[in-house]
Automatic annotation (TrEMBL):
One of its GO terms (biological process) is mitochondrial proton-transporting ATP synthase complex assembly. Keywords: Chaperone, Mitochondrion, Transit peptide. It comes from the Eukaryota. The keyword Lipid metabolism does not apply. Belongs to the ATP12 family. Gene3D superfamilies: ATP12 ATPase, ATP12-like. This is ATP12-domain-containing protein. SUPFAM superfamilies: ATP12-like.
C-alpha cells in the first residue's frame, strides 16, 4: 500500500455511493478511499469491454468535461471489439518482448476503472506505481488535473487503442502545421527570427537525418499563411508542402507506434503544436520501430525536457523578454507546459524501459 489518509479526510465507498447525486462533478469529489496500491492483472484484451462487478471501483472521473460520457472528442467503445486489433495496439512494440507484465491500481483493495468503465491496467509496474502515487496524493478532494499519468493511461485504454485512426490523423495534421516551420520575417523582426533559428535548426537537422534526408519546408511571415491555404484538387489538404519522402516516412513511423506511444506523441505535439518536437523526443527515447535509414550522426537537440520547453515557447519567452512576465499568467503557462511534456515523456520512456530485452 502507498499510504493511508487520516479518517477525517476519508469517507467509505458506501457513503460516496449514497451521495453520488451531489458528487458527480469531474473535479472536487471528496476522497472516498483510504489506501492505494497496485496489483498484478491479466492482459487488457481479456477484460476490455466491462469491469467485473464488485471487484472494481467505478472511476470518479467522467470521460467528458460536462460530467457525462458524451462530450466532444469522446469516442465510445465499439460493440464489436476486435481482440487482434487490441493486442496489436496495446502490446508494447519492443522487439524481442513476447510477454508483458500488466498492473492495475487498487483503491481499498478494489481495482480502479477507467472513465469508460474498463479495468485500468498498464504494461509497467513502475508506471502503475506512479499512477497510484497520483491517487494517493489526492487529499480532501479528487482533482483530475493533478493526475496527468492517469489521464494518459485512460486515454490509451479508452480511446487510442480502440480508435487509433483519429490519433494518427491528428499527429499527421500537426506535421502539416508544425509551429517550428513558421519563422518570423527577418526584415520585420530580426531578433525573433534569430531566436527561432537557434531553437529549431538543430531539430530540423535531426528530423531530416531520421526522415529520408529531406528538410521540413519552412515559411517566413505572411508567406506561411499563403503556403498553407487549400488550393484545388492538387492540394486537397491545408498545410505546408513538406517533401513527399519526409511525409511518407513520418506517416509510416506514426503507424508503427502502439497505443501507448501514440498517446504520448499526441500529448507532446498538442502541447508543443509541433509533430517534429514530439518525434524528436520519442526517437531519443528509443522509438525506432519502422527501421528508417539514418546516418545517426545528428544527435537529438533536446538533452532534457527543459530544452524541449524552450523550443515550445520561443515566441512567448521572446515577448516576456520584451514586455515582462505577467504573474498568474505566464508563470502558470510555463508550469503547465513543463508538466505536460514531462508526463508524456515519462509515460513513454517508462513503458519502453520496462519492456526491453
Amino acid at each position: 500500500m502507498l499510504g493511508v489518509v487520516p479518517k477525517r479526510w476519508a469517507t467509505s465507498a458506501a457513503d460516496a455511493s449514497s451521495n453520488s447525486s451531489i458528487k458527480t462533478s469531474i473535479a472536487g469529489r471528496s476522497r472516498f478511499y483510504k489506501q492505494v496500491g497496485i496489483k498484478s492483472l491479466n492482459v487488457p484484451w481479456d477484460a476490455t469491454s466491462t469491469t467485473d462487478g464488485n471487484d472494481n471501483v467505478k472511476s470518479p472521473i467522467s470521460a467528458g468535461v460536462d460530467g457525462t460520457q458524451s462530450a466532444t472528442g469522446v469516442h465510445h467503445i465499439p460493440l464489436d471489439n476486435d481482440t487482434i486489433s487490441l493486442i496489436k495496439m496495446l502490446k508494447p512494440r519492443c522487439p524481442g518482448v513476447d510477454d508483458n507484465c500488466w498492473y492495475g491500481v487498487t483503491l481499498d483493495g478494489r481495482k480502479l476503472s477507467t472513465p469508460m468503465g474498463q479495468t485500468l491496467v498498464v504494461p509497467s509496474e513502475t508506471l502503475a506505481m506512479m499512477i497510484a502515487a497520483e491517487w494517493d496524493s489526492q487529499l480532501k478532494q479528487i482533482q483530475p488535473t493533478n493526475m496527468p499519468l492517469m489521464t494518459l493511461a485512460c486515454t490509451t485504454l479508452d480511446q487510442a487503442a480502440l480508435h487509433p485512426k483519429h490519433y494518427r490523423d491528428e499527429a499527421i495534421n500537426f506535421l502539416r502545421t508544425d509551429t517550428t516551420c513558421f519563422l518570423a520575417d527577418p526584415t520585420e523582426d530580426r531578433l525573433l527570427h534569430r531566436r527561432q533559428k537557434q531553437a529549431w535548426q538543430g531539430l530540423h537537422d535531426f528530423c531530416c537525418d531520421r526522415l529520408g534526408g529531406s528538410s521540413p519546408t519552412t515559411a517566413l511571415g505572411i508567406e506561411g499563411i499563403l503556403m498553407t491555404r487549400k488550393r484545388g484538387s492538387e492540394k486537397p489538404q491545408t498545410g505546408l508542402p513538406h517533401p513527399e519522402i519526409l511525409t511518407e516516412l513520418a506517416t509510416k513511423w506514426i503507424y508503427s507506434l502502439d497505443a501507448w506511444q501514440l498517446v504520448a506523441l499526441n500529448s507532446i505535439a498538442n502541447q508543443a503544436k509541433s509533430f517534429l518536437i514530439a518525434f524528436a523526443i520519442l526517437e531519443s527515447n528509443g522509438i525506432n520501430i519502422s527501421n528508417n535509414e539514418s546516418s545517426g550522426v545528428v544527435a537529438c537537440p533536446f538533452p532534457d525536457i527543459t530544452k524541449v520547453s524552450e523550443a515550445c515557447r520561443v515566441e512567448e519567452e521572446f515577448q516576456i523578454s520584451c514586455w515582462g512576465l505577467v504573474e498568474g499568467g505566464h508563470d502558470y503557462d510555463r508550469l503547465n507546459c513543463n508538466i505536460q511534456l514531462q508526463s508524456a515523456n515519462l509515460f513513454s520512456k517508462t513503458i519502453l524501459l520496462e519492456n526491453e530485452y
